[in-house]
Structures
1.
Amino acid sequence: MNKAINLYLTILRDKKTKCLQFRHAATIVADLLAHQTLLQLNTKTVTIDTPLAKTSGIQRINDIVLIPILRSGITMLPAFLCYFPDAPIGVVGLKREEKTAEAHLYYHNFPPLTPEHQIIILDPMLATGGTAVETIALLKKYGIQENKIIFVSIVSAPEGINKIRTAFPTVTIITAAEDERLNAKKFIVPGLGDFGDRYFGTEE
Ligand code: URA
């Protein structure tokens, strides 16, 4: 893990961190992950004209679509929109059932999608992988190619990573931290607690 991510992840993990600092640290980690995501994208060499001369550079090949998973995924949007300001945004709403921890799709709204699109799914906590796998399966029904999907999370459990890798081996996973395990309530350990509650200020 790089030092910049580690510094801000430590703030996120600390239970003493209040909502304002949590939001700030989450935005910085999301920014660092957006930078890592950028490095994964397919590019081509192009020739362009500066005001003075011709020179070569690179351009992205595929148009990007950002897909935050509600609700915590939307917290990563501002950072990703800095890097991909023209990207259409699709939204997926999946609710985790308390008892079974199974994910149920209750809402989705996608922009027009083509197989050429590069999809970036945003969800800060990759726990069981249930919501991730449901989202990827849904995107495949829309004709998206598995190898054009990047899943970005801040903290991941090995269970979630394995679930994606088993179901969709060519999906790229970018995460700031791979933690030890899930506990009986399917929370990531050591983790950072409930990301949504801490970011949105809805903690009891
Ligand atoms: N979602 C969270 O917010 N935290 C976890 O540990 C797991 C899922």
Note: The chain has one domain: 3-200.
2.
Amino acid sequence: MADIHTYNFSGKRALIRVDFNVPLDKETLAVADDTRIRAAAPTILHILKQGGSVVLMSHLGRPKEGPEEKYSLRHIVAHTSKVLGVEVKFGGDCIGAEAYDMSAALQAGEVLMLENVRFYKQETVGTESFAEALSKHGDVYVNDAFGTAHRAHASTTVVANYFPNDKMFGYLIEGEIKAVDKVLNSTDKPLTAIVGGAKVSSKISIIERLLDKVDNLIVGGGMAYTFVKAMGGNVGNSLVEDDYLETARTIMTQAKAKGVNLYIPTDTIIADAFDNNANRKEVKIGEIPAGWMGLDTGAETSKACREIILNSKLILWNGPMGVFEMENFQQGTVDVANAIVDATAKGAFSLIGGGDSVAAINKFKLADKVSYVSTGGGAMLEYLEGIELPGIKAIRG
Ligand code: AMP
């Protein structure tokens, strides 16, 4: 594999897989949130500055049967030009004579955007002939789409085979990989993971892997009630996965055997309905009355978590402590976010990875006060689980 830092792009056409799957305004089809476009800009601008030209390919939405106007990348061309400060041309299609003519005519410093690769079903199937057709747009392949790195699609994985010596990660993917590797492979201690969110079942692989790595494991969110029930507590109507009670017991036994400090919340904010305006009370977590459900963690839990987090050198946070989308049940998640911010200010490295904890840290406007916020979603979860992502493997070879 090549290295974006040292590769000479002068006179080269770089085919970059970006993740421009951005939300569009339903009425005007204008870009509603350009975070992903801005995130890819450093890679694109680096190549242009070096005297290369750029061909961008991406998917947008989930078109079912061929082209659909609402999923056309045409809608984001103008906005991308604005973000880059460079005029972006549009290829009309992602393969075919017209698109090839346009990419072949690119001069140094120019940018072409291809049409949505998912307008061809061969993209998600990962068809070799389609990947080969895409490969004709570039002399060098750069993958900067971490969000789709866990998919073995034509443009994210298979296409790399056509650039045996000229394939590399962009800055965005490189940053994601470095951040996770830093948390999971560094010798700095203590390492604390906070794993929250709705269900034990969706986090079990991560928890099992983390038990071999972490010093402290804080369990939060809906998941915690399965642990509490497994310990014989009363959880009322809280979210519980009865099929996972045994799994929860095994995790507790394993944590003890491995010397991991497993922290389960001790108090909770309960509600008499799954509603922001429901009646609320703070109780011990194993003493939830019938008809009530735990929707957030309590003050004692926040205090204990804060102490653990402030004493940590490495912090990984995945999943909220409660139903943070509802204002009356967001405090536990706010408290954890603030503790992570304060630990970071004291010198800890903090990674917010995967789904809803990223949404939470953005909601609380604290994203710039932690070390790294992943854009990866599902890809980040799989990487944390230790799964070798096809898009990453295809580059590393
Ligand atoms: P996940 O995608 O697994 O990280 O789950 C995130 C979701 O879990 C969020 O939408 C939260 O609202 C939800 N959640 C967190 N705590 C609870 C809880 N105590 N009861 C029900 N849902 C919860």
Note: The first helix runs from residue 35 to 49.
